[in-house]
Write a structure and sequence with these properties.
globular, 348 residues, 12 strands, twelve-stranded mixed β-sheet, D-Maltodextrin-Binding Protein, domain 2, alpha/beta
Length: 348
């Protein structure tokens, strides 16, 4: 018979063997998961204003898979979202990114931040919204950036760009920072389209006295507006539809100078190096599905990209711009930093 010390030694040896085998098995399974794109977690990046109803719909879509957890990480604004994705581009934490817009497209493609994926139901997306023929950036909603006004606080809104800089609107406009905010970025581009590179800063110098504040993101700025801090705000042509539908009021209205507004197409994509590729593809498929797209108007307060998605009456009644203005994404990528520095110098 074995002595006590021998039995103890044999037990420890067997225990060590079991631990090693379990570790090897776990490592082997991990390698298999890496090769197949299977992971137990789907990580999504978006901005702070991404609606809870849309987040919940994504979670519900994956609820049947008990082995998968969904984590949605929010950033204060679109600028912060892009910066984080850019910094992590070599070793991405996120599998899916939701909420960048078409003005970031050139940098996304140049830096190879997203990988190609052609989602199901692609043929039901409005062809004019397919900003990337390589299917790395997939549109999921769109709208137009413009000024809104509160008709109960302002009887006579500005009727032109020249009118907007009139002293009677001193301290009555809320805008967003183009360095951090998507509508802020697009509004700056809007002014460059309208006034040209040689005169847009002159317009901003004239506009500056009429600006009450420049907020980091849309949520903060629009919140100040609805609290009555100022009668004019930078927002979307769909914003009045929200109030018309949910609050049954038409007090909030659009301002279209010469019938124009600046196009904003929001996109989603799978990061190049995503750990959970399979779940990421399922997520993109769901984002362009009719189930998700039908939620866009009354939750995201934007237009859905699918041609068969339902559009509430409030969106039709509140109206939209006659002319949609846009700028070539490559030009934006090449020159935006310089335009922004000029704007920042004026606004100091």
């Amino acid at each position: 018979m074995l002595g006590k010390k021998a039995r103890t030694a044999l037990f420890l040896l067997l225990l060590i063997c079991i631990v090693v085998l379990l570790g090897f098995g776990g490592q082997e399974q991990k390698l298999k998961n890496e090769e197949s794109g299977q992971y137990d977690k789907l990580t999504i990046y978006s901005y702070d204003a991404f609606p809870e109803a849309l987040e919940e719909s994504i979670r519900n879509h994956f609820a049947g898979d008990e082995t998968l957890s969904v984590e949605l990480i929010r950033f204060e604004d679109t600028g912060g979202l892009f910066n984080q994705v850019y910094l992590e581009r070599m070793e991405p934490v996120a599998d899916v990114v939701i909420g960048l817009d078409n003005t970031y497209l050139s940098r996304i493609l140049e830096e190879e931040i997203f990988q190609p994926y052609e989602p199901a139901d692609l043929d039901l997306i409005n062809p004019g919204l397919l900003v990337d023929g390589g299917y790395r950036a997939i549109p999921f909603d769109y709208g137009s950036v413009t000024l809104n006004y509160d008709s109960e606080l302002l009887e006579s809104p500005p009727e032109s760009w020249d009118d907007l800089v009139d002293p009677r609107f001193k301290g009555q406009i809320i805008l967003m920072n183009p360095a951090t905010s998507s509508p802020g970025r697009n509004f700056l581009l809007f002014t460059i389209v309208e006034f040209g590179e040689d005169k847009y800063l002159e317009f901003w110098k004239n506009l500056k006295p009429n600006i009450l504040t420049v907020t980091a993101g849309w949520s903060e700025g629009y919140g100040l507006y609805t609290q009555g801090e100022a009668p004019i705000v930078l927002s979307y042509d769909t914003s009045p539809a929200y109030h018309l539908h949910y609050e049954k009021t038409d007090r909030y209205k659009n301002i279209f100078f010469e019938g124009k507004a600046y196009a904003q197409i929001e996109i989603a994509g799978i990061t190049n190096g995503a750990k959970n590729v399979n779940a990421a593809r399922m997520c993109i498929d769901f984002i362009v599905s009719k189930t998700f797209q039908d939620l866009i108007p009354l939750n995201q307060i934007m237009y859905p990209v699918r041609s068969d998605a339902e559009l509430p009456d409030a969106f039709i009644q509140s109206g939209s711009a006659e002319i949609i203005v846009n700028m070539n994404e490559k030009t934006v990528a090449e020159r935006f930093d310089g335009w922004l520095r000029g704007w920042e110098a004026v606004m100091r």
